[in-house]
Specification:
This protein is of the alpha+beta class and about 375 residues long. It contains 13 helices and 17 strands. α7 crosses α9.
Length: about 375
């Protein structure tokens, strides 16, 4: 993906600088630079009618007192809510387009984040409907596909690098701000708007119909990445999977031991391994025997017949008898195993094939792993 063709003068490094600085920016140009699936009318994700039966959606509306509300959509038809004048926000719509899924993979490579950190949402509204003042705890790149929209933006230091905890206080913060100082932008068809996390924004339709798709980028923070890495290592030791019960003195002693173990990991940990695990990058073939794999938190599996599931969606699995044997063995060993454990059970299967399949399962989110040299 060539970012500069879509946003002339802005490359990947420049985009990440906007994110880090909390600086919103508008890029105008022809809609032909959008990917095919976002082209008006014909694209797979180009209008509300293409998403009529998409069940993951929310509805925004104002009550008689003018207060804004957003609720989870009811019924199978998002279009019915849209026709009544509500704003319809369809979530994770990349699931409706293979091309969109592939495109998100390109973005993940550009930004150096896990594919799991990216999704597409759509916004559809008639006339002057819109959304009230809010900020997101993720970076947003907004593609206006149809109609005009009025945006208002306001940056505040209190929400710079907003996370999910910051978001909980959004309404309290909003009640104390002076939004009269906000900047305004009219965005039309073909406009790309970068809205970093924590930037307050408000929008209102300015056409008979307005439709847009937002690329949402939400990688884990520094603190989340490090804490997850420590957790993944500590949980390999049975004593740290125990719930914390008992007298206060016993709990304190147990936590002191756990804290010392965590401190030892912090002293010895390699940042490369942490990032490799968190971002699900390509496994290093020459280090494959140092990795300890297990079925991830987002995954599930069944045998007879074999089924692999990630985020509730079944993975398409097909291949040779040897490949299927490796996948079945992975599921049987899913509580924790090394690559060589598969080799012992399937000596007739080439080690390169095992490595290839493990890497694919990590990329899909089915497997998590830790560097065993640092784990126990």
């Amino acid at each position: 993906m060539d970012l500069e063709k879509m946003t002339p003068g802005l490359d990947g490094a420049g985009l990440m600088n906007l994110f880090m600085e909390g600086q919103w920016q508008v890029f105008r140009g022809p809609i032909e630079r959008f990917p095919e699936f976002l082209r008006p009318d014909d694209g797979a994700l180009s209008n509300i009618r293409k998403l009529d039966n998409w069940r993951q959606y929310h509805v925004g509306y104002r009550d008689q007192a003018g207060q804004y509300h957003q609720v989870k959509g009811s019924g199978n038809s998002a279009l019915a809510h849209y026709d009544k004048g509500a704003l319809v926000n369809s979530r994770s719509i990349e699931g409706a387009s293979d091309a969109a899924k592939e495109w998100l993979g390109e973005w993940a490579g550009l930004l150096g984040v896990s594919r799991d950190a990216l999704r597409l949402n759509s916004w559809a509204v008639k006339d002057t409907g819109g959304i009230d003042w809010h900020f997101d705890c993720e970076e947003v790149i907004h593609f206006q596909i149809k109609g005009d929209k009025l945006f208002r933006f306001l940056r505040t230091p209190d929400t710079h690098f907003a996370d999910s905890q910051t978001k909980k206080f959004e309404k309290i913060m909003a009640a104390q701000l002076n939004f009269a100082e906000a900047c305004e932008e009219i965005v039309g068809e073909g406009t790309i708007t970068v809205i970093p996390r924590g930037v307050w924004h408000w929008s209102e339709g300015k056409s008979e119909e307005s439709f847009a798709v937002s690329l949402c980028v939400n990688p884990p923070t520094f603190a989340q990445t490090l804490s997850r890495s420590i957790y993944k290592r500590l949980r390999l030791l049975e004593r740290y999977r125990m719930p914390l019960f008992g007298p206060a003195d016993a709990q304190r002693d147990a936590m002191e031991a756990c804290a010392k173990e965590a401190a030892a990991f912090l002293n010895d940990i390699r940042c490369e391994s942490v990032l490799l695990e968190e971002c699900r990058l390509e496994l290093l073939a020459d280090r494959i025997d140092t990795y300890y794999f297990y079925i991830g938190q987002r995954a599930n599996a069944k045998l007879g017949p074999l089924r692999l599931v990630v985020d509730g969606e079944e993975l398409v699995i097909e291949g040779s008898d040897k490949q299927m044997a490796v996948l079945e063995t992975v599921c049987k060993l899913g509580t924790g195993f090394r690559a060589r454990d598969i080799g012992k059970l399937l000596p007739h299967v080439d080690a390169a094939l095992v490595t290839e399949l493990l890497a694919a399962l990590v990329r899909s989110g089915f497997l998590d792993f830790v560097d065993i040299d640092l784990a126990i």
